[in-house]
Amino acid sequence: MKKIAAALLAASLLILPAHAAGANPVDAAAAVLMEKETGTILFEQNAHDKLEPASVTKIMTLLLVMEAVDSGRLAAEDLVTVSARAASMGGSQVYLKENEQMTVHDLLKAVAVASGNDASVALAEHLAGSEDAFVAQMNQRAAELGMADTCFLNCTGLPASGHLTSAHDIALMSRELILNHPRIRDYTTIWMDSLRDGQFQLANTNKLIRFYEGATGLKTGFTDAAGYCMSATAERDGMELIAVILKSSTRDIRNEAAKSLLSYGFANYTLMDVYPGQALPPIDVLLGEREQVQPVLAQSSRILVDKSQVNAVTTQVSLCEDVEAPVEAGQKLGEMAVSIGGEPLQTIPIVAGEAVERITIPGIFSRLLRNLFMAG
């Protein structure tokens, strides 16, 4: 093995214990601060307490709809016909009428901006046939995401006994939505807009969109039982954070709690690249159709680091000296060890970036003749 050591900026995929990094408790029943790309939890307060999420529920509704849109099962231009049941939803609404038709695009806007319960049910029924069938999909997706604290009973967050989740689980589904379906920002960053050719005005229930630098979303909620809830997302300098607040006593306290967590994260952490723009040295291939293979990192080398530890991070690359063909794309060829202050943080596999077939007998002769010709 040949080893190439280099001091580079990086950090680990650690999960930090609650308050370990110095963030102050927030005025809410529960809270979580998570970094999007790595999924690192930077702060937690009663993170697994099962609480009512109110309209923050709609993050899962938006996730399922965006998964359908991005997979091609649903198109933004598709028309949805509103049922009597969808039109009957109370609470926040855009006053859909039975048999009214509205595009998926406009209904997504109604959910993300105005938190329309009627729009949520219309989308759920269109996608799954009924809200009950859609809720089953919500719970299945929650299980797949590891949301062990969650039980959804509707797609809106309207009060229902047993409709519960946690700050931790909301962070998980928020991350899935913004990480893998970035087009949701087209809706969650709208401050003001309209429906029905300008006849119905929309104003975002998330005031951070206008008043917090870098805000990208995501969803607010309120009922008397749930209190004031929020999953707030914001991005600065290429790092996006998710701040979940559950059961605050007022809208302003909720908003300030979310802002304080986001600001804490931006002040204390940064995403750095452990191997920015550098090619790893090629590895010799024995008996291969090509004489070398290019190794690549198996995953992103962007890692979260506490700003106070930036200069203490080092990396060490270990590679095979050679490998015998055939070589499969993705075959492990080495690893990159990341440490901080000499303490191991993370190991990133290094793999073959391409396949190399074993050379044939005619190929060996052809190579031999070519080498003889070049030597002559």
From TrEMBL:
One of its GO terms (biological process) is cell wall organization. Its EC number is 3.4.16.4. It catalyses: Preferential cleavage: (Ac)2-L-Lys-D-Ala-|-D-Ala. Also transpeptidation of peptidyl-alanyl moieties that are N-acyl substituents of D-alanine. It is an enzyme of class 3 (hydrolase). SUPFAM superfamilies: beta-lactamase/transpeptidase-like, Penicillin-binding protein associated domain. Gene3D superfamilies: D-Ala-D-Ala carboxypeptidase, C-terminal domain, DD-peptidase/beta-lactamase superfamily. The keyword Iron does not apply. It holds the Pfam family PBP5_C. Pathway: Cell wall biogenesis; peptidoglycan biosynthesis. The keyword Membrane does not apply. One of its GO terms (molecular function) is serine-type D-Ala-D-Ala carboxypeptidase activity. Residues 269-358 form the Peptidase S11 D-Ala-D-Ala carboxypeptidase A C-terminal domain. Substrate binds at residue 219. The active site is at residues 55, 58, 115. Keywords: Carboxypeptidase, Cell shape, Cell wall biogenesis/degradation, Hydrolase, Peptidoglycan synthesis, Protease, Signal. InterPro entries: Beta-lactam/transpept-like (IPR012338), Peniciliin-bd_prot_C_sf (IPR015956), Peptidase_S11 (IPR018044), Peptidase_S11_C (IPR012907), Peptidase_S11_C_sf (IPR037167), Peptidase_S11_N (IPR001967). Residues 1-20 form the signal peptide. Belongs to the peptidase S11 family. Removes C-terminal D-alanyl residues from sugar-peptide cell wall precursors. PANTHER family: D-ALANYL-D-ALANINE CARBOXYPEPTIDASE, TRAFFICKING PROTEIN PARTICLE COMPLEX SUBUNIT 12. This is serine-type D-Ala-D-Ala carboxypeptidase. It comes from Lawsonibacter hominis.
